[in-house]
Amino acid sequence: MKKIVIVEDDTKLRKYMEKYLKGYNYEVFVIADFENVEEEVLDINPDLILLDINLPTFDGFYFLKVIRRKRDIPIIIVSARSEEGEQIRGIEMGADDYVTKPFSMGILLAKINAVLRRTTIKSADVIEVCDMMLLCEGMQLKAHNTIIDLSKNEYKLMKMFMNNYTKVVSREKLLEELWEEESFVDDNTLTVNITRLKKKLRDMNLKCEIITKRGIGYVLK
């Protein structure tokens, strides 16, 4: 279930948006304490933020700037400021869309769905787990501003581990992942690739590691 955070000081509108979006199977969080918006949002780590600009304690543009520095969370501005200059400012500062009040909830929902679709397509090329990112297009692993190249087999294994983070993956499943019609992959090949991958993770000083579960398989945790 996708998580949406609503940052809106109009209580009536906030409750209506919350109820409406919950009806479309979204997990909705509302921010009522505008002194700690940044901390609350980062703790929730939502899939999308609906952000009002006219907030009681600070300008929403400031919050947009702060979040953009720390996270790549999709943000749709929902504001009574309908001037073209304000809309351009919001988009140029990193907002994914801008909806002016009053608005139709149906249109807002369509924009939310569109932004999340674009984000899903974009994120499909990157898998993020623990303190590292797997860059699928280039078969690379990134952590702490360091990027290392992975072999084809190492990439396949790393992708399997990251997609099953904290879950044990059996040797049989890993062998199936490496198997190709034109090449035979034996048990020793798997062991060699796992060993190389373990070393690369250690060299990057990551918080997580690949742990051997003797007689069962391996787990990234």
TrEMBL record:
Pfam family of the protein (one): Response_reg
Ranges annotated as spanning the membrane: none
Start and end residues of each OmpR/PhoB-type domain: 124-221
Residues recorded as bearing 4-aspartylphosphate in the entry: 52
Alphabetized UniProt keyword annotations: DNA-binding, Phosphoprotein, Transcription, Transcription regulation
PROSITE patterns: OMPR_PHOB, RESPONSE_REGULATORY
DNA-binding region extent: 124-221
Keyword Transcription attributed: yes
Name listed for the protein in its UniProt record: Stage 0 sporulation protein A homolog
Source taxon at top rank: Bacteria
Signal sequence extent: none
The species this protein was found in: Clostridium uliginosum
Record-linked InterPro entries: CheY-like_superfamily, OmpR/PhoB-type_DNA-bd, Sig_transdc_resp-reg_receiver, WalR-like, WH-like_DNA-bd_sf
GO function terms (MF aspect): phosphorelay response regulator activity; transcription cis-regulatory region binding
Domain Response regulatory per the UniProt entry, residue ranges: 3-116
